[in-house]
Amino acid sequence: MIKFENVTKTYNKTVKALDDVSFNVKGGEIVGFIGPNGSGKTTTMKLLTGIIRPDKGKIVINGFNIKEDPIKVKESIGYIADNPDMFLRLKGNEFLQLLGDIYRVPEVERKERISSLAEKFGLTEALGSPMMSYSHGMRQKMMVIAALLHKPPVWILDEPMIGLDPKSAFELKQLMRDHTKEGNAVFFSTHVLEVAEKLCDRVVIIKNGHILYTGTMHDLEKQNKNESLENIFLELTEK
Fold it and tell me: Could you give the CA distance from residue 19 to residue 35 in angstroms, rounded to a whole number?
């Protein structure tokens, strides 16, 4: 459902953030995206969501080429950014209604979806308050609800667990699993190797704009016997 093919992105004509990068995410998969700071993860997320354009290469999401059908691509994805501090002057329910209007979610479905997700993440009582009064964790949970409101087939999540309490993190992980059971796809970045090991079908490890590894965590461990995941990751990314 995600095809990222031979993508290159350079900033200021000198800094090559991504260099001929390719990977894919199939329907029914949760794929984790791992790499040290400055490795190209943020650039990749921005390219996948159409915030920036590649210099070279092709990006296809849910069958739509992001260059040729950018609106169709945006309709197909649910995106959680790494910073939940946005639209803070709006009340929670105003923000969700805005997103519902943008994605043309029918009123009945919208109401049911907001109610269900708000209850799941413990935000029902907070929806009538301005989001500037929310804690960081509450804002993060609001971004989760907003991203899933239109039931997109492809989820692109940038460090989605940061700021979530254990219960909310568990609920999100369960939603991710349920989503892929329906044949949909999840692609998310994380710094937490334990989360990647337990949750992901495959991982993509990146450093300095190059893919170092694509595959399962189990196969990565088999290739590096008697090594902890932390040591394997450090050895890969410090070479």
Answer: 15
DSSP letters of the chain? Answer: -EEEEEEEEEETTTEEEEEEEEEEE-TT-EEEEE--TTSSHHHHHHHHTTSS--SEEEEEETTEETTT-HHHHHHHEEEE-S----STTSBHHHHHHHHHHHTT--HHHHHHHHHHHHHHTT-GGGTTSBGGGS-HHHHHHHHHHHHHTT--SEEEEESTTTT--HHHHHHHHHHHHHHHHTT-EEEEE-S-HHHHHHH-SEEEEEETTEEEEEE-HHHHHHHTTT--HHHHHHHHHT-
Tell me the per-residue pLDDT of 49-71, one tens digit each, with 9 for 90 and over. Answer: 999 999 999 999 999 999 999 99
> pTM, whole model, 2 decimals?
0.90
The domains located in the chain, with CATH, are 2-86+153-237 (3.40.50.300)
Does the CA dihedral 169-171-174-176 come out positive or negative?
A: negative
pLDDT tens track for 145-188? 999 999 999 999 998 888 888 999 999 999 999 999 999 999 99
Three-state SS string across 207-239, please?
Answer: ECCEEEEEECHHHHHHHCCCCCHHHHHHHHHCC
